[in-house]
Amino acid sequence: MLENIRISFQSILSHKLRSILTMLGVIIGIAAIIAIVSMIKGQSEQLKQSMIGMGNNSINVVYQQNGGEEEGFHELSYTTAPPISDETIESITSDPMVKGVSLYHLAEGVTAFHLTNSAYPQVFGVDQDYFNMFPIRITEGKALTDKELGSKHQVVMINEDARDELFPDGDAINKKVEINGMPFRVAAIFTEKKQDESVYYGEYGNPIFYLPKGVWPLIEGFDAPTQIAVQADSSDHIQEAGMMAADLLNASLPEAELEKAEYSVTNLQEIAEEMESFNQAFALLLGGIASISLLVGGIGVMNIMLVSVTERTREIGIKKALGAKRRVILFQFLTEAVVLTSLGGILGVLAGCGIAKLITVFYPMPFIVSVPAVAGALIFSMAVGIIFGLLPSIKASKLQPVDALRYE
């Protein structure tokens, strides 16, 4: 076997250009498959992190009415939640699955603003716990201090989309913004701070406003949080941690209250399964298209091996005259075909990884190389060599020594 591999490399190196052109179909096919699988896996991971885990293994536990959509989705407020006891929060935070908890207010809608380009500006009433889970990066002005976040000062931090719409001239710091008729001073402009720069969170263009949680009663008339974010210790525990928190919160509600509204979380498992199903179908479709290149490459390998058998007819005749058996000749040419396609497979894997990495530079998403895909591609490239190299190898093994020696 080692001798056959050595002879194969000698033959390939003696016809470098021909060998490269022969491998090109295999290289393109394997590269396309590896790049496609890597992109789909990277996109799937990006969606899981940004949509399912909110970018940092977090999930929202939402208080909403039973049997319908949340009230006020198109207005400024959500269903008013009852007060949450410190004992309930302590029970949630003491669970080993939970890394952090943030109680905050969220309202969205267009009724409080005169905005033209965005569907739903979002207004948050937050404290420092929220920013521990969802950090932001200040681009102008000064971030609100812990003292300000815990006060009833009418100050606000707005994102760049809100600044661009409310203050087209770009000068927003210390200017006034009215929210539900209440004036707020703009203290800072911010942008989202990515937890992982390889994750693309998307640019939705929604104006976002962060107010101190203590000032919320001034604009809504109640101070109980409408949203609870629970951060799990890992992505595997996101759903479980959210359901645990929802159960504890519902257990603290009176029975009469539970009949009207309750805390709930999105079924992330269903979302993940739907995403996985879509990605698999998409991968099969694109993989099937890329496999056409492998078929073309296999035909090229068969063609060049037939040419090689014709060129080396006298060599085959001499080996047979010296006592070489049919299987020795067959395995020699079959090994050469497998080595040729395997080299193409290796180069294809490297090219595919390079293409996938290059794409992540222009379209930010995680760069993930699928080990099973790489192993499958290499095995498949070897199989192409065996399948398409078998006919030329059989032809070589069937040559008669006398006819081969007389061949010119």
TrEMBL record:
Signal peptide: none annotated. The keyword Translocase does not apply. Its main location: membrane. The chain crosses the membrane at residues 20-40, 281-307, 328-359, 365-391. Pfam families: FtsX, MacB_PCD. It is found in: Cell membrane. It is a multi-pass membrane protein. The keyword Transmembrane applies. Keywords: Cell membrane, Membrane, Transmembrane, Transmembrane helix. Residues 289-401 form the ABC3 transporter permease C-terminal domain. Residues 19-241 form the MacB-like periplasmic core domain. Belongs to the ABC-4 integral membrane protein family. PANTHER family: ABC TRANSPORTER PERMEASE YTRF (PTHR30572:SF4), MEMBRANE COMPONENT OF TRANSPORTER-RELATED (PTHR30572). This is ABC transporter (ATP-binding protein). It comes from Bacillus atrophaeus (strain 1942).
